[in-house]
Write a structure and sequence with these properties.
heterotrimer, A mainly alpha, B mainly alpha, C alpha/beta, A: mainly alpha, ABC transporter involved in vitamin B12 uptake, BtuC, 3-stranded mixed beta sheet, two-stranded antiparallel ribbon, 16 helices, globular, C: alpha/beta, Rossmann fold, 6-stranded mixed beta sheet, about 35% helix
Amino acid sequence: MSTTAKVPVPIDESAEPAAVPLRTALKAPILLGVVTMLVALLIAFKARAGKTTFRLAADTDFFDLPAVTVPSTATVATVVVLLALGTAASALLVSRGRRTPLWLIAIFAVVAMVGFLAWAAAGRTVPVVGLLGGSIALAVPLVFGALGGVLGERAGVVNIAIDGQLLFGAFAAAIFGTVVGSPWGGLVAAMLAGALVALVLGFFAITYFVDQVIVGVVLNVLVIGLTSFLFGQVLAENPQELNAPDHFERIPIPVLGEIPVIGPVLFRQTILVYLMYAAVVIVAWALYRTKWGLRVRAVGEHPKAADTVGIKVNRTRYTTLLIAGLIAGAGGATYTLVSVPQFGEEMTDGAGYIALAAVIFGRWDPVRATLAALLFGFATNLSGVLSVLGSPVPSQFMLMLPYVVTIIAVAGLVGASRAPAADGVPYRKG
Amino acid sequence: MSTNETEPAPVEEPAKDPQEPGRFDGVLREIVMGNAMVAVLSVLLAVVVGSLMILLTDENVRDTAGYIGARPSDFFSAVSTAITDAYSALFRGAIYNTNVEGFEGRIKPLTETLKFSAPLILAGLGVGLAFRAGLFNIGGRGQMLLAGAAAGWVGVGMDLPLVVHLPLAVVAGALAGALWAGIAGFLKAQSGAHEVIVTIMLNYVGYYLVFYALSKQGLLQAPGSLNPKSEPMPESVILPRLLGDRFNLHLGFVIALVAVGVVWWLLNRSAMGFRFRAVGENPDAARASGIDVGRTYITVMLIAGGLVGLAGVNQILGTATSGVTVDMDAGIGFDAITVALLGRSRPLGILAAGLLFGALKAGGFSMAAAEGIPVEIVLVIQSLIVLFIAAPPLVRAIFRLPKEATA
Amino acid sequence: MTLELRGITKRFGPLVANDRISLTVNEGEILALLGENGAGKSTLMNVLYGLYQADEGEILLDGAPLKMSGPGDAMAAGIGMVHQHFMLVPVFTVAENVMLGNEATGFAGTLDLDAARQRVREISQRFGFDVDPDALVETLPVGVQQRVEIIKALSRDARVLVFDEPTAVLTPQETDELMEIMRQLRASGTAIVFISHKLREVRAIADRITVIRRGAVVGEASPTATNAELAALMVGRPVELTVHKEPAQPGPEAFVVKDLRVVDDTGHTHLDGISFSIARGEVLGVAGVQGNGQTELTEAIMGLQSHVRGSIRLGEHELVGKSVRKVLDAGVGFVPEDRQVDGLVGGFTIAENLMLNRSHGKPFVSAGTIRNGYLEEFAQTKLVEYDVRASGIQAKASQLSGGNQQKVVVARELSRDLSLLVAAQPTRGVDVGSIEFIHKQVVATRDAGVPVLLVSTELDEIVALSDRIMVLYRGQVVGIVPADTPRETLGLMMAGERPEGTAA
């Protein structure tokens, strides 16, 4: 027993095939297959006669693209074939141990949507530019809200109060936009209002360790109560002096705005939309490329580790939360400074919860969350467009989509999402 | 005799310092365990803030404040008038109305308070029970809507004698609420999906589902109508009035009281409740002790959803019998969260909190009618109470109370 | 440079964690801080590192008092710390972790990752580490993670380095390597504070030893002191360094594990076909460095792992595929390795914790209702029998000390009719008195004819209690050897080297 010989214990790391990653990878082709089946079912059982027209031009286009008119059933049939091919490609890739690339899924989604529209709008005209442009407009508060949500959660503070920030932002924008006489005044006030809600959230969640979900939910109710109370008590009596802000006008961007389809959709919007583009880029850059972002992420993942290297955890959380509040508040301004320049009770209608859904669906990443918010904006707008077209799909089901998609996402059916490790956990020293 | 030498202490530093919260300091623990003093003070504080809001927005007060230097007495009398008027209106609406003739008329407000508190208690129990098992049920709205729609569907869709019809409608509603909440429990058990997110999302899915059913002929929409509303409930499913037709108080309140008793037994005396609490306090230890945590999540959410569902039933078959609508939940789903928090997730606490908020509601409507103070002031006070109650150190600091000894 | 702590007092409410502690450590010197669980070592180091503020006393660096309001000040003063629980962000790369809080930046606060990578390589080279600056920390083995901690401290030019229980997660060989690194640092003039409760290591490396007990310095010792002297100083009374037990009287084989494989949810293999058996009246000790499959082994037996293949037979029962409840019903007692996570419900009373795994029927439950009278009587008896020091059976488990918490767990498990006892780290974080008590209970259980599976990362505990020892390394059995196998052999086995002449 006194002598020992080095007998390395063999461990073959690859002996056990990584079972779960395969299962994860399999989700994509299965999902694509299900979508293909659903579209196929549309023509199999509820085929609709007639032609569908896709109008690509906006009213003021420089180039005038002709409208595309296609026979509904034939188009859907073609789409089904394309979708089946896409599914097969995905299955083939997975069987060779690779993942389904994102671009394939994106193209698949676009094709599926074309098929769906060709079916749903049979005999009618789909205003493509209006559909997409409207989606962007509807998505603006969602994107701002989601960016705020992403920032807060990356720093470890769950922000259920996005809705409160949007609503309070809308409220402040209406009053101050009116009083100052400029929508810019309203925008600044909205941002400050969002930050104020964030400050209260931080005060209870960071300083007093109150459960962040509770604070968030209660803050939403508080803001509803407060704004409705003040609306009834003050605004309703002097609408002209307090609730009639100037609104932002559309600013077409030269050249870019003239590009067919893309131009009117992306570059003939109000300044808030352009601010949104900037916000997405800046937040993504700041979070991943700067010292500040590194610290924010450290504080959200492992606050104690951050503390031990001299980072003030709670101060970082406060500042991040305030910045997030400014951003979310700007989203609130869209409600009262763009289309309908006046405040109404509970006018956000729970949009903050969709923004929250976008945060989770976007896996706590600013760019993905933005895309999710755009998707949700699209779903909302689509329901409106379809009901105008008199489509056979009840608008309620389209409106339900963001929420259903989010449930599917958190249930882990589509990709695995990992929240920041210390998300929602108050930091106590020691 | 074999003896082996050993070094004495395979020891580590303590897992936690005495003051450090450590793992046992569950998220909801402070709320469940805090003391009653803080609760009372929180209510007081919230009422003070609410009063300030009333004053700040009162026109008389604002006008007199303009010349407070010249005639301070005007200002102070305006302040006292505004406050007294508001609170006497609140009192008249919630407890005892001195402005009408006859004892029946005078105590009617009290019965209104009880009527308003019934759904708050029921839904509060649903939220509180889930809390105790470590689950945050924010899905009250969706559960109430689904329950109301199911009860309403049984109500208008069938023609049965009261003894069968009413219980059937009640059970259908409770079941619908249970199943809707059960989805969140099931997903939590299956994949760990966070119930906060799932229940929030289910609120909206439920809303649009019911909205759809209400705008579809043949489902729930009243025949020939274009409004998203069902027919009124027939007599055979309406919860009987407890004190005759002059009062609106109905059987729902009794159901709420019974539910308080049942939940109390469940949590404090039953083996199932023991397991609920074990899972809520420490799911890992529960699992290692042979408790099926996933199944517990599902069971808890089913029961919680059933309780919230009863709140929906209470509305549709008792308080608002004119038909199912998408706003029949009247914010109770969210109010329930505040009730559960104020009641510290304990059945008797929830009963008390439900009565208090019921009184605020009843009184709030009377304030709105008599003084023109928007009823949302109640919402403000309610949420402030919960914020304060969730942060005992803040309340102690404001009232300069000594720190609670850390045991 | 010389670091001096002078009269440091730190209180938590009524409890005095540090009571006027003074100590000095000089340049090029290793000072060991020795003390048992709860003695206040970590509190002291957290004060030194600025995580806690001392109520009294001062910290002097080369005679000048330091003003500390946070770890930032400590680092600026040249104090670095290698934490027991690594202070690394798992989803960050090595370079990001090293630069965190000390970031090199370019335009508008942009991170200069190249500079950080360079710094990591430079320090790695100096100490012969092999660390990839771009590796994600969570993918690195613990030994390498510890090196990242060291690099992190050195990258800030630490001249005083505190190692807090650094060997807890290391193999004996890795421990030797760490000691070599510490010597190298000492030679380069770094002042080192080495916190430990392991007498052997302290004696091996320290230049001076300071012993603390109940928050106060109780003495200085030289590395030449004997184990018994140091132990007595540390505990405050002569310590029984031995566990008295009769030779085992093994009965028939009662617990047989065959070809057990455990895979986790990510597809990673934790146990790779292990087989062993335990006889009635025998203690099988499972030795190994933490993370070599011990946790998965106990959890697989208990039904707490989801992907288990192979066979676990207890008498007539096959346990693989059974729910936790079925396993418990088969008579398996389980002392989990982390009592606060798996063993106790902190918010429950002692009485409630004593019935935690018996809420499904008799004797504590009838007709779905808890029999409070019976429970109270039972709890009262156990409180006395197991010497649990508490205000009463209604005391919350979270209010008890580690030792008393563990006694509650042991009491619960040993109060059932057992056909197997699985005890994982039964004395971790427990005071010496409770250790002695729990060890006696384990031996008594064995003597009552129950097979016992004892898992511990403390080799001393394994050697003291076991009748046979099984060594696990990377999910495989390196060997099953008699309890009197030399420590050096066991140490090598723990590093995966198989002794000649033993079958795996």
